[in-house]
Fold each of these.
Amino acid sequence: MHERKIGASMDSLNNLNNDKAAIVKKVHIETWGCQMNVADSEKMLSLLQQRNYELTLNVDEADLVLLNTCHIREKARHKVLSRLGVLNQLKNKKPELKIAVSGCVAQADGKKLIELAPQIDILIGPGKIDQIGHFIDATPHNGVPQVALGFDRHSEEQNSTSTDDIGKFIAPTVSGKKEVTRFVNVIQGCNNFCTFCVVPFTRGREVSKEKSQILNEVRGLVDQGVREITLLGQNVNSYGLDFIKTEIVPQDGGPFVELLKAVSEVQGLERIRFTTSNPHDFTRPLANLFASNKKMGRYIHLPVQSGNDHILERMKRKVTVSEYLGRINWLKEAVPDIAISTDLIVGFPGETEEEFEDTLKLISEVEYSFVYAFKYSARKGTAAARFSNHLSEEIMEARLKRLNDIQNAITLKQNQAEIGQVRDVLFFYENSKIPGMYVGRSEHYRTVRVKSERNLVGLTLPVIITASNKIAMEGILN
Ligand code: SF4
């Protein structure tokens, strides 16, 4: 076969090239929600590239539009429906356009979504993303949408990169750019069933990825120039409990601590982060790792959701406020200046004024570097959606504002205290609107901007912080 190609005339080579050009198609991907979805979009893009699709950022030139959706709040779901309306107009002008919907809205709404938006050609839940390639391979279907929902214990996706491929792993980015920081999915799903959360229904139970495959992916990404990896899971610190058949993290920190140690040994990797942690599965050895392993940085996201025990119990969070504060103390003992962020839900059904004020007390006590605070949003199928005493929008809005005002003052105070400090900053990109302005993050996960005539992307350099506001710092190279 190779000999025939080598011996081909220029005309036949041109024909071959033309054929190749003819079969390259374009996919436009829109990703909503969490980092897990970004990682899933990248995985689907890599499967589509194997089918001769290339990424386009311009929806008008796409042959396939993939919406990777989020269902965490009702507003996020509405955005998907409204986007499907716009895409329908595009499909009317271009009938051969394929529309695929993946992610948590696909799983949660299922075929009902197709009734609402019959222009959908492919519907794939987060547990079946590996099937996108098969659907694309299929001959044009007869107007019947192709649907894959539900969860397998071990999907093809999880075993799609063997240890024999070490060093060969290549994952494209959905931005279409070379990135210095990337996500690596290490565990899918969640076993916890917090009463407000839809994740166990949309992403299934916990299934960990083999350590060898994770290391393979990390090495491959580092070979491509990646310097920071964020290990992802809805409940990332229960990684590997399914392998050792327990629901309780062992006293030594268990498989997740082992995984972090192994990943940190990858040559060329400068930083490891992980998200999202459940305080219930957070161990002292994990806190101590921040002290002993410089690649871990000095930042952690540890969601608490509420500062009141009664609300935490009704959320089924499995930890009390004092147990949560115990974990914060482990972290502060390990790294006294560690930066901590959290997630908070304001206006959980039945939340009283006093219970809300306990959350305000908690944020003042912990002094988070920042918080992701949201008004409670009832998700169909969850236990909390059936609770009585749902709060009015006005009460939730007012409480959210009070909380954000307090937190913003704390964030500003902490950022101002950074002025004069020297911080190691890993630079991610050059600001496209301000040439020579490089943007990176410090060990504490604070955004830092530095002017430089030389390209700083991918470098970790000491920076003297010279100015700050609530959002970011500015500095000069030390
Ligand atoms: S631990 Fe996180 S992902 Fe799991 S149910 Fe609770 S909030 Fe949802």
Note: Residues 1-20, 155-167 have pLDDT under 50 and may be disordered.
Amino acid sequence: MKFAFIIDPIDRLDPGHDTSVALMEAAQALGHDVWVTQADGLGVEGGRAMGRLQPVTLTPVELGSDRWVAVPNWYTLGESAYLPLETMDAVFMRTDPPVTVPYLYTTYLLDYVDPQKTLVVNSPQGLRTANEKMYALQFTQAIPETIVSRDKAVIRATVDRWGKAVLKPLGGKAGEGILFLEAGDRNLNSMIEISTRQGQEPVMIQIYLPAAKDGDKRVILLNGEPIGAVNRIPTGNEFRGNMAVGGRVAAVEITDRDREICRQLASTLRRDGLIFVGIDIIGDYLTEVNVTSPTGIREIDRLNHVNLGQQVIEWVVSALREKRQ
Ligand SMILES: Nc1ncnc2c1ncn2[C@@H]1O[C@H](COP(=O)(O)OP(=O)(O)O)[C@@H](O)[C@H]1O
Ligand SMILES: [Mg+2]
């Protein structure tokens, strides 16, 4: 089969860490043709989504002492062609957040991929529906106490009530803009003003979960089912566990509570075409649903001796076969 990946410029990917590369490698290893494109190479012509596609051949990473290691020239690109995306069997939308207006435009372009011919992972409609912070709000049994507001008085009153809270910009990722708030902090007003851009943008305020010091668990879901997990533990004076800010990764079990949270999400994720998702769980609570370009596969593969990329590609192949029968 033919698999296209919409990625950030390939020379900026980190083959030892990035899930997109793990998925591409898995597709290649299973005998499929792998193509890459970027959001800026997409368009619509004659009612069909087009992409400037380039075939790519990868030299797979190898296991080093504490991470996957790639050779310096780990990819070779072939000649590019501007083709209808429906010439591909599946298209993985893997552009990194933030979700900007151009990102949203890309999802509108992807609406012009014929679903009878090509599976888009994740669904462009789903990508528009699921703001990575706000999507979790509907799972009221799974999330900790959380509000969304741009109103300083509301935010202050909430922080005063809870004592400790975490502020999250609604479009953030990788720990960016995440603040620890404490009642009585002399910077509180100022932090709210900066984060809401003087009340122009709503932010999320969530009760501080002390369990965060033991880690922020990433659970990978494939069509609503948990297939793997990794813990990210804050290091030094940092309260955030994100790998991008130095979080230490460690093997972790998927607990009964984690499975229960996944069960609460499963049918909604399927309805929204959110096939490949990474949820964040702190203690017993769901804190985030990552749908744009979830990561974690490389770390899970290394720590648990599994191959999640292969599982994902096999699932996509069988979903396509079923649809075409
Ligand atoms: N409610 C919370 N209590 C304590 N720490 C939190 C809470 N929510 C998030 N964090 C910390 O902030 C980090 C980033 O939060 P998250 O909501 O996953 O946003 P993102 O990963 O998109 O930046 C997490 O890794 C975790 O360490
Ligand atoms: Mg997160």
Note: The chain has a mean pLDDT of 97.
